[in-house]
Design a protein that fits this description.
Elements (H helix, E strand, L loop, with lengths): L5 H15 L4 H33 L1 H11 L2 H4 L1 H13 L5 H41 L20 H4 L35
């Protein structure tokens, strides 16, 4: 009830022995026992009185109805519970599971072999038809008519307006060449005359 362990009870007993004393300790435990007995009897009487009141008010019937409404069967969870139980108990190494796996594997292998055989025959037929077409014995039927290509669009130059004939170039008189600036002459020193 109070989550008291043996070590806590031992500590309480030692403290009670020291505080109360060895002479009065048995009397105290007797009184404590009577008190707890009376408290438990009162709790039992109270609980039975409450149960009787609930029965007379019909609370028990409502509680039973509520339990029935929220049962697994009413909610459809019983089937889910069965499946979960089967899944928990399923063992992939049981003989039935191994036999089923072997059957599935054999069926897949047979299906794959049939598909390979069918593809091989189709390839042989196609090879024979192409060989005959190459020899010229039979003309191969065209698979579909080739789409007619749209006429090529003329290039941008051809689509542009025709240019007017070029004017003959006339020789323009060249402007006379500008005289180049003469190199600066060194200044004559005061002593030199030119």
């Amino acid at each position: 009830m109070f989550d008291i362990g043996w070590t806590e009870l031992l500590v309480i007993g030692i403290v009670a022995l020291i505080v109360v004393g060895p002479k009065d300790l048995p009397g105290m435990f007797r009184t404590l026992g009577r008190f707890t007995g009376k408290a438990k009897a009162m709790a039992r009487d109270f609980q039975s009185a409450m149960n009787e009141a609930a029965d007379s008010a019909g609370v028990k019937d409502v509680a039973d109805d509520l339990k029935n409404v929220t049962s697994k069967k009413a909610l459809g969870l019983d089937a889910l519970d069965e499946v979960a139980t089967k899944f928990e108990n399923w063992d992939p190494m049981t003989p039935e599971a191994q036999a089923k796996a072997a059957e599935t594997k054999a069926a897949e292998k047979a299906k794959k072999a049939a598909l390979v055989k069918e593809r091989t025959e189709a390839a042989k037929k196609m090879h024979a038809a192409t060989a005959k077409a190459k020899d010229g014995k039979t003309a191969a039927k065209p698979a579909a008519k080739p789409k007619a290509k749209a006429p090529a669009k003329p290039k941008a130059k051809a689509a542009a307006k025709p240019k007017a004939p070029a004017k003959p170039k006339t020789a323009k008189p060249k402007a006379p060449a500008k005289p180049k600036a003469k190199a600066a002459k060194p200044k004559a020193k005061s002593g030199d005359k030119a």
